[in-house]
Amino acid sequence: MLPHQTPAWSALEMLARRPLPRIAALFTQEPERLSRMAPEVAGIRFDYAKLPLDRLLLSALKDLAEQADLAGWRARLAEGAIVNESEGRAATHMRLRDPARRGGHAALLDLARRVRTGAFGPVRHIIHVGIGGSALGPNLLVDALGDSGDGPRIHIASNIDGMALARILAEADPAHTMIVAVSKTFTTQETRTNLDTALAWLKAGRVADPIARTIAVTAAPERARALGIAEILPFDESVGGRYSLWSAVGLPFALRCGPDAFEALLDGAHAMDRHFLEAPLDANAPVMGAMADVWQACFLGRPTRAIFAYDERLRLLPSYLQQLEMESNGKSVAHDGTPLPFPTAPITWGGTGTDAQHAVFQLLHQGSHADPVEFVAVATAGHRLDAVHHRLLLANCFAQGAALLRGRTPDEALAEAGGDEALARAKSFPGNRGSATILLDRLTPERLGALLAYYEARTFSAAVLMGVNPFDQWGVELGKQVAGRLAAGEGDGFDPSTEALMATVARQC
Ligand code: F6P
What we know:
alpha/beta; Rossmann fold; 3 domains; 6-stranded mixed β-sheet; 13 strands; 47% helix; 12% strand; globular; binds 6-O-phosphono-beta-D-fructofuranose
């Protein structure tokens, strides 16, 4: 039985017809709310108390988790059973951070050590070519924690647009550069093209044997070998691109910050995995997050979920989560192919605080949408500048959640507007807009590992509650195939608009 066919789903549909609870009132009606709804795991506080979920709803969502067999799916994921049905595969990313199985990282850690200690000569720049899951995770890790690293600078070229690589090549020098080519399939058009161009640049820069300065990270080592690459770090087919930073795909982070930092990242993720696997469903941080996500997207029909990182070090988190959540759960059929009669994963979007406050927060506070908002902050600063910066940053972060919740009543607005009723209407805020705040005590490899493992477990849990397979991505394939046909010059047989566009550029490039 799929989740939407269970009695719990019907009960939730009934609850969705009630007027929404007043979140502020829940703090008095439920005196234990804060302790129940703000679990702390692995140095991270997950404050869900300002979400529009009362005890009744949480209990109905817990029923759904039980009737959807979340505990069973969770166990099957952990034990390496086939959970990706459309591709007939397990999803083994959690096993990569299990200390009992870490032997598989020996080659990665050894290679990182060798590069860092000069086995390839002085290496100051790494050009990482890869896209999607083969870039977003490493990019986030290096951007978040790379300031404290002493290894080579990491430059990530993902886009097929040569501008991306051209900018990197302008900063690097061939004599001190190595290439890391990351691709699960080793067939991806963008990565292969960027690799060819980077190799040609090394050759033009008088590097005698460019391929000897190239490391491949792939689940298809034979394809890398066919190009003459000798340094190959393989990873398993059962590790999906967007779940792969725990494998050799994380090499750039180990190169920049060292093997110990990489291991600490895995330790933090494993601590979160233990919590996800062992904590009861209604006190389980990722499961609670997933329950809130499914309630708001599937039952309240809220089409987006915004994530704001109130820390420059985490500025790439929203785009990382876009892939994790939208490529995983952006599905319209269940894992058995049954069409789903409800809206599934919302659009994940977001930005960095406080910049975003001066750009998009108007809509969040007063727009006609009341979509869920999530803040991610770190209690301690990553810099040594005046503490005022961090104090104001956190004050702004917490102020947004408080203001979304409280709003401004028409009477308050009237007083503020000096009795001008039209102005008062413009200055009224509905309030009762829910948000979650995730607060890390500090940003270390362990904490970042735990945070990313949390989002993975939450995405998986939401998939189970909706009945979708989070581990395939067939939707991406059609676009790839059509791009391949157009790139091969097959401009005929498309719609008139596409044919005209192709004809226009044919005259110019
Ligand atoms: O965009 C689809 C996708 O398959 C992602 O899931 C993956 O991370 C990316 O392409 C890159 O693929 P590969 O690692 O095979 O180059």
